[in-house]
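Thread: Modeling a multi-component assembly for a lab meeting

Hi all, long-time lurker, first post. My supervisor asked me to bring a structural picture of a complex we are working on to next week's group meeting, and I have zero experience with this. I have the sequence lines for every component (457 residues in total). Could someone generate the structure of the whole assembly? Inputs are pasted exactly as I received them:
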Amino acid sequence: MSANSGWLTRRYAVGPDTAYVTPEEDTQAATDTAYLALLPHGPIVLLEGSAYLLFWAVAAEPDGALGEQVLAAAREAAAEASIGAPELAEQVAAFLTDLVTRGFLVESGRS
Amino acid sequence: MTERPIPLSIRVRLAHALAQRVADEHGVDLLHVKGPAVDPALRDPGRSGTDVDVLVRPAHLDTFVAALADLGWERYSEFETGSPFEHAANYWHSDWGYIDVHREFPGFQADPQTVFDRLWADRQTLPIAARDCQVPGRIGQALVLLLHAARDESRGTTEVPRIWSALDTPGATGTDGTAHIADTAGQEAVRALAAELGSTVALAAALGELDQHRGARDYALWAAYSQGGSRFDKAIGRVKAEPTLRGKARAALHAVPVNTDALAMRLGRAPTRAEVAQEFGYRVWLGMRDGSRAVAGSVRERLDRSDAPDRGPRLPGHRQSRLAGLAGRLRRRRDAAPPPESGEPR
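Re: Modeling a multi-component assembly
Sure thing. I ran the full set together rather than chain by chain. Output:
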C-alpha cells in the first residue's frame, strides 16, 4: 500500500443531504444511471456507467463502504477493460474524493 | 458527471426529498400526498405526477412557505387565487420544478387542523429519493386519492375502481411492509375515515353513490365536479356548500376568480389593474355564458316537464304550478305573435 493509499481504509457513505434516484426506484432512470441532488440548494447531477457503479457500491451498503470495497467493485466492473491496477485505484480515489468534496458523500475512519 | 434534461418523474422525486429536508430543518410537519408518495398498490402505474403535493400542518404553513422563498422558490399561484377551492399555493423553482403546498384538501368538511391531525396520527414513512418522507397511512392515502378523483370526471371511470379494489386486495403489503387489511375492511375503513372527517358526500361522488345524498348541503357541488358540470354549476355548488352566509358570500365573490399569479407569469411582469380587470371580464363572460346555458337548459327542462308529466319527476306543489302557468303564458304569446317576415330568424 503506497503512502497515499489511506483512502482504502476509509469508510464512504451517502451524505445526509444527498437525495438520489436510481432505476431500482424509478424506471424513468436509464439502466446504470443515478440522479444525485444535494439538498436543499442543489445541484442535481447525473452519474452514468462506471460512475454509477462506484456510487452504488457505496449507496447499497447501509453503513457505507470502505475504499477497498469500492475499489474491488471497480476491478470487477473493469475486468475486461485494459486499465492497469494503479491507474484504476487512482481514478477510484479521485472519484470518491470528488464526491466527498461536492458533499454527496461523507468519509470517516482511518486515513 | 454529466448534464442532461432530467426526466420529470425523477425531478418530482428529488423535489419530494427536498420538501422533506426543508420540513425537517424548520420543524414543519407535512405529509406527502399523491404521485410517488402513494402506496404502489394504490398508485396508477401509468401516471407519475408532474409536481410535488404536500399537505402542511396549518400552524406550520407560514414557516414552510417562507423557507421555500428563502431558497429561491417563486410563488406561482396564491392560495386565494390558485383554484376555486383556495386550498393550495403553487411554488416553482427552475431546478426542481413545482411544489403544490396544500393547506387543506377539497372534500373534507372538518377543519384543516382536525384533518391534518387525523392523517398525521396514522402517518407512515416512505423513502423517496433515499429520503424518509412522511405520508398518510394507506387508508388516508386512499381517501385523499378518491376525493381528488371526485373533482375530475375523467378519473372516475378508471382510477376510482382501481383504487377501490386495491384497498381490499388480500396478501399485499403496505408502504411500511405490514400486511394490508383483508377482505372488505379496507373499504369500510375509508368510509369510516370519510365520515369522521366530513367527506362522506365527496367520497360518494367519487364512488358513483352521490344520489344517496341528494339532501346534503354539498350535493350540488360534488355533482357539478364529478359529473362534468359547467363553471356556473360548480360556482353555484360552492355557494350552496358553504354552511354560513359569510361563506356563501365569499364563495360567490370567488366564483370566477382570476389567477393573478399565473397572469403575472404569463405576462412576465406584474399585471396592471386594467389587465386584471380585463382578465376578470373574460372570466366573467365565460362564467356567464356557462350560466346562461345552464339557466336556459333548466327553464327548458322545467317547461318540458310541465308539459309532459310522464318524462320524469315533477317539481313539487306551488313551484310546479307557477312554472306551468309561465309556460302557458309563453306559449300563448308565441302563438299569438304574427308570423315572422321572410328571412327574419325565428
